[in-house]
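Sequence only, no structure available. Ideas?
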Amino acid sequence: MFDGSYVSARSLAATTSLLAVALLACGNEGESQVIPPVVLALLETAAPTYDDGEVRIYESYLSVPLPLRRPSDAERGKGDANPYPRPPFHLASDTRVTARFILSNLEDKTQTVEVLVNPWNEFVRYAPGVVVGEEKTVPNLSGIDRFVILPPLGRVEGIFTPDDMVELATDLGTAMKIERMPPPADSAFAGPALYNRAFNIQNRSSQPDAVLAPFLPSVVAGVVGFDLGLRTYAPAKVAIEVVLDIEDRSTDRVLPAKDTARRVGRPDTALIPPAAPKR
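Reply:
I predicted one. Tokens follow.
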């Protein structure tokens, strides 16, 4: 929704707080909780994160762990569960996660912004990186990668639905299987091609892509957190606030928001697509 109005940090926080109250009222006690608003900004003074003299990329990221608990030793599965190193404790079906966001332009000129979500499961976190080509350099697709045009001093409201989050989990499992079963180096799908195909917004696992079908995981490890990002290709002053609503569908996976000691947390292992092959 575009309204062309200036959104101050105070008014944006107030709007988000009211949204959080409304969401909490919708959930049944003990089944759903709203995580305090997550805030991320990209300032016009930020140095580029990539600069080859022709392409400049400006990015800002924030790690967002979900309040999901680690399994006990007795709950931790044994043996290989391709593409995972063991059976996952957190399944995509165990929770319903909804993310509502407000993206604000804090400057009096139109901005084009990418809203990025790079998922984690209990095994790996996705780190897309960039494809450095002979003619141009482009970032690989993030788990969720939306271009948004922001009017001067305006804002956009949006949502990532539970279905989007399940798709995110499925795509990460698909990427893990691609890493285990990479195509031949001389294939048209070598390098980052299949990873970008999996995370393309037009790809939905409910309508399987014939190329990706061999890589779909039979069991889908759930998203336990993500890296939230903003990206532009010119200096910009923008901010995003996200309210997360998480419902525990298995009755024992979600922790109280303040219980951070038992969380799964951000995995140490990053899944990074391979470089494009030289032709």
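The longest helix spans residues 162-180.
Hope that gets you unstuck.
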